[in-house]
Amino acid sequence: MTIFAKILRGEIPCHKIYEDDHVLSFLDIMPIARGHTLVIPKREVATLDQLSDEASAAIGRVLPRISRAVLAATGAKAFNVLQNNGELAHQAVHHVHFHIIPKYDDASGLGIGWPAGKLQDGGALAQAIVAKL
Ligand code: AMP
Predict the structure, then answer these.
(1) Ligand 1 atom index nearest CA of 84
(2) Rounded Cα gap, residues 60 and 39, in angstroms
């Protein structure tokens, strides 16, 4: 069982921000910026691709509202929404979660490596992905 499943069951505490039938949101215990907040589905799946349309929509409905509250409470003007899937992609807790991370300055918050390349086979690649939808 993941640590987030334990939080959902009330077995360990959290600083709750929001809850409805499908979603729980709480402060990250090791924030990389003040106001760093997590939003998780109550459905216990590890990665976003496994999440149902319904559970995903429930998160989508509240992400902007929670983000606005984080900005208003912290005074931050910018923020990142981060969602990691798989250990290679820096996922440590294997229960889907979205990070809302205020960005105050270059020194705090999310730092991003962005090794941009040049799109080579856009047509074929798009076709291959579309065929899997
Ligand atoms: P990720 O690397 O995307 O899996 O991020 C997992 C996040 O969960 C990290 O930012 C941790 O600080 C956070 N975290 C781990 N345990 C707890 C906890 N008990 N309460 C709140 N946040 C937690």
Answers:
(1) 3
(2) 10
